[in-house]
Amino acid sequence: MNELVGMYFSPWTERARWALDYHKVPYKYVEYTTLLGQPLLRLRAGKPFGKVSVPLLITPNERVNDSFEIAVYSDQMSEQEPLVPPAHFAEIKNWTESAELALYSARLRATRRIQASSEALADRLPGYTPNLLRKAFVPMAYIATGYILRKYQLEDDDDEKLLKNMDEFFDKANNALSGRRFVFENLSFADIVIATAMQAITPVEDKYIYLGLPSRKCMCEPALEMKYSSLIKWRDSVYEQYR
Predict the structure, then answer these.
(1) pLDDT value of residue 35
(2) For the residues 14-23, what does the mean pLDDT come to?
(3) What is the CATH number of domain 3-76?
(4) Region 197-212: what's the mean pLDDT?
(5) Which partner for 239 in 131, 159, 200, 243 could form a disulfide, CB atoms 3.0-4.6 Å apart?
C-alpha cells in the first residue's frame, strides 16, 4: 500500500492528496509532526542527511517528494484526463513555482500569529493529544512554531513585504481566471495549486480541511479576503465540484 506523509493543514499536502484522490490512487495517510517526526521521516525517505520535507509519497517501488511530482505520478497511475497534460506541463510547473513565495510568506505571517496565541498553539498539537493535556503541551507547540519560523525564514520577512508577495500571486491568479472556469480548457493541477493556495487568505470549509477556530483566525487575511472575494467563490466552487 502506498503511504503519503504530510501535514493535514498544509496546502502542499492538500495538493498531493487532491491529485491522488482525483485519480483514485490508493494510499494510507500518515500525519507528520514537526520536530518529533523528523527522524521517522528521514527513515521513510531513505535520506539520513540533507533536506527532507512533506508531502512524501512512498510507493512499493519509489519515493516521490514534492506535490507537483506526486501529481505527475498520479497521472501515470490513471487513465483519466491528466492533471498535468503534456501540452501545459511547463505552464503548470510555472504556476506551482510561482505560488511558492506567496505560500512561504503566508506561512510566516500565520505562524507568527499562531505563536502569539496559546489557544492556536494548543489547536496545532497532534490530534491524538488528550484534551486534558493540551494546555500542558503548549510550550512544545511554541518550540515547533519557532523551528518553522527559523527554518523557512525569508531574506525580507517584513510583514508588509510578505503580504505584498501574497497579493502579487493572487492578482496573477485572479487575472488568469477572470471570466474563466479553469486556467486551461479543463481542470488541471494549476487550478488545484491556486485553490489550495487560497488557504493563505481564508481557509476552506472544515468538511475539507478541519481547523479549530483559533487556527482558522490566525490563517485569515482580511484585506486580501475582501480584495479577492470572487477568487474565494471560485475556490469554493472548485472544491464543491471536484474535491
Answers:
(1) 65
(2) 98
(3) 3.40.30.10
(4) 96
(5) 243
Q: Between 146 and 184, where is the model more confident?
A: 184
The model's pLDDT over 127-162, given as tens digits with 9 standing for 90+, comes to 777 777 677 778 887 888 888 888 888 878 899 999
Taking the C-alpha atoms of residue 31 and residue 181, their distance in angstroms, rounded to an integer, is 33
Cell numbers representing residue 91 in the block: 505552464
pTM of the model: 0.93
Per domain, the residue ranges of the chain are 3-76, 86-242
Interior CA angle at 233 toward 231 and 237, to 5°?
A: 115
Checking phi first, is residue 171 left (phi over 0); if not, alpha (psi -120 to 50) or beta?
A: alpha
Q: Torsion angle, CA of 127/70/98/156, rounded to 10 degrees?
A: 50
Can you tell me the distance from the alpha carbon of 91 to that of 150, in angstroms, rounded to the nearest whole number? 31
Contact assessment for residue 48 and residue 41, using Cβ atoms and an 8 Å cutoff:
no
Q: Are 229 and 235 contacting, i.e. CB atoms less than 8 angstroms apart?
A: no
Q: Which residues of 150-183 are buried (b: 16+ CB within 10 A; e: fewer)?
A: eeeeeeebeeeebbebbbebbeebeeebeeeeeb
CATH class of 86-242: mainly alpha
Alpha-carbon gap, residue 131 to 94, rounded angstroms = 43
Q: For 214, what's the count of Cα atoms within 13 Å in the CB-facing half-sphere?
A: 14
Strand arrangement, sheet containing 28-31: 28-31, 3-6, 56-58, 63-65
Q: Per-residue DSSP letters for 11-31?
A: HHHHHHHHHHHHTT---EEEE
For residue 47, pLDDT over 80 is answered with no
- 3-state class (DSSP) for residue 138: helix
**Peptide bond before 55: cis, by omega within 30 degrees of 0?**
yes
